[in-house]
Amino acid sequence: MPKLGVNIDHIATIREARKISEPDPIYAALIAEEAGASGITVHLREDRRHIKDRDVILLSQIIKSKLNLEMGLFEDVVDIALQIKPHSVCIVPERREEITTEGGLDVVKYFDDIKKYIETFKKSKICVSLFIDPDLEQIRASREAGTDFVELHTGRYANAVSKEDIDYELQNIKNAAKYTLNLGIGLNAGHGLNYRNVSDIAKIEGMNELNIGHSIISMAVFTGLHEAVRRMVELIK
Ligand code: PXP
Fold first, then answer.
1. What backbone phi and psi angles, to 5 degrees, belong to 160?
2. 154-165 residue pLDDT tens
3. What does the domain layout of the chain look like in residue ranges?
4. Class of domain 3-236 (CATH, top level)
5. What is the CA(6)–ligand 1 centre distance, in A?
6. 211, 219, 221, best to mutate for ligand 1 pocket (most atoms within 8 Å of CB)
């Protein structure tokens, strides 16, 4: 059974809507762990629009499961990663104007830089994953660059609408998964996975971990809303 890494960025996004101290992503991480998450994932973006330095520092000290730090290759973010030494880093492409991580990392194009950073992280005993599209050329380059894991981008599969497109994207991920394992690289996947589409990805042989955020936090809003309103009504009474 693949492990579940819970991405808690959206908790920080809600906090930043008010720029106060709650809801605190640290508390969310503890709840996710208690519910069975095997890891906590956060993306420390260059513009710090949701997760802040303080969050990753505290998470690295407090959580009992594995901290997976998603990051673009920005010097200040690399410095923080080397300082807090998360269990793993997942290197992602990052553009300021994007709403969420859009495509996979172009390992072929940025090979030398990526290889250099992989060596730096591995010297610090931080496990490295590269977030890439399910593309054989990218997987081959990831292997040559020395990564421990790839995280296959499931966004195109998640966004597909017709049965034909869904089947096509799923087969593409399955082929990429097989190729990854044959090259001796660890296999993770994520992006856009939800309660309707996760099981076909979870069934893929050799899948180590799925990183899921948006759908879990969205579900939490609805499973928690009734109780939240009830408690407030009680207090007002
Ligand atoms: N994996 C990576 C590399 C991501 O950038 C994200 C989004 O932050 C996720 C997984 C989780 O995606 P989602 O929020 O759609 O579940």
1. -65, 145
2. 999 999 999 999
3. 3-236
4. alpha beta
5. 9
6. 211
